[in-house]
Amino acid sequence: MALNRENFDVIQAFADVLSVITIAICFLLKVPQILMLLKLKHARGINIIGLLMELFSYTVMFSYNFRSGYALLTYMEYPIILIQELVLIVIVVIYKGYVNIYTFVLAQAYFMTAAFFLTGIIPREMLTFLVPLCTPIGASSKVVQLFEIIRLKNADSVSLLTWFISSFTNFTRIVTIFLDSADLSLLLNFAVNTALSTSIMFSAYYFKEIYKPKVD
Asked: Is the pTM of this model over 0.85?
């Protein structure tokens, strides 16, 4: 029994270290993409619908983990990513010329809904219902972004580093969640997102290389 306990402590320590690494990397997740857009002064190749779908998925997953009382280290990257995602959406909205009264109404509706999720005004059962939807919605957001790159045959404004980080952190979360709670809904979500983030990274790299200016 002592051996089992010792093994459990080692595994838990490994999961905690991996969680800290994941959280630390997530501080940079969207930063390369944000900096690239600010440098290029346009958002061509970035799909706003995909970003909004990502925002929904991140918000629900953060709220679900928070309300479920899971260990903070297993989901702390969500509030970090949410802040970056909101900044990225604001930049894309500005560069694409989508700033209007409807934008402000939608923003207010989002923040009110997020507050209701976190404070318990919306029952936890609703989050339990929404969590399985995050897998197809999160996957769809990446499929939309992938199609945007392929449709335009342009990935100039897409950051390879951002999608590499996304792929890596999604994979590490598969490991930490399996060791901590083995929540099947969360495991499926991260597995699908790992595969799609990797696909976007390689697609963006492909189009960047094809259309890279030739140097004589």
From this structure: no
